[in-house]
């Protein structure tokens, strides 16, 4: 018979190591998908308001976003490590260890944010210059970045608390916090950017201040949930002590997630340079195509995160077969979505591209890109879900290595060879992306099927 504490904690979200796997997948995946959409909406709203300030302001936020994206990689890595450990401990009903892991991730996140607050502001302008920003863009972007650097603790603590909750099987609470932050951002953006009422007109800097404040409010909500014991995980001020052995274990798992994200960012920059050879129309078509593909990937990120939690918790409960079944069922659900996406892209690509551009050449090139890209969607279902499932088991090294091989060993060289060596121009790049996507999906599926992740210690 389970203790009252275990029963009470489980009662907050149900036991994911028992019952219907299908129900558990969607109980987790749906709020995660909504959360991903809210996160996209958060960034879209920022750009929407800033867009009214002119091209230089748009460029400043876009280029600052590259810096912020690199900055947050470390926090996401820490979150991935904590999530895997929390899932394993919750599955084993070792809740105090899960609480302790969350605390240690917060110590690291806060230490990292303090370092950024100290060294980030002086580096804001040099970083933007390295990215090639014009002087007016550097001035605007630096004002944006300085506020983000100083207030980075709100973003990091938010990310880390949300990661631990998802590992514990509570996907709804982080989504509520993100909804709160998004709605606040909608309200604060025009006030700070345009100086409505008695607020100062801050322009681009107002956008970053709105981001920090709204994320901070979401962070406060999550902390309230933790400290009032309204979630699976609890925080206690008396137990807020650093434990470097646990920090090391978190880093050992999370560092490869961070490196994988860095790999994707670096390969993305290289691919953009390859595409840019063929002119503005092709760059525009590529940008629109990648934006459209991200929309179809959004459900996969949510389903993959759900699979990660289910795998981690069932391994903690010593149910490896149930963990594996959860992952494969998750893949199956996402493949159904991807089949629908493939049909839509094959039939309606011109119409979809025309939502972003009315230029006939952009529509033609973009349609060709989406047609070829969609042929790999079924295989991308394997890589999107199973890579996250392995990370949930604590195996973040394998997905990182496979991504590195497929991006730098297949995608980039093959895109150059087919586009330039075989004179296929932009279509050669599209084929390189398609082939590497298929290869990544098949390799990850094969490696996951071997089952070595079941024995990963966290």
UniProtKB/TrEMBL annotation:
Species in which this protein is naturally found: Aerophobetes bacterium
UniProt name for this protein: Multidrug-efflux transporter
Principal location listed in the UniProt entry: membrane
InterPro entries, A to Z: MATE_fam (IPR002528), MATE_MdtK (IPR050222), MdtK-like (IPR048279)
Record carries keyword DNA-binding: no
Alphabetized UniProt keyword annotations: Antiport, Cell membrane, Ion transport, Membrane, Transmembrane, Transmembrane helix, Transport
A single GO BP: monoatomic ion transport
Entry GO MF terms: antiporter activity; xenobiotic transmembrane transporter activity
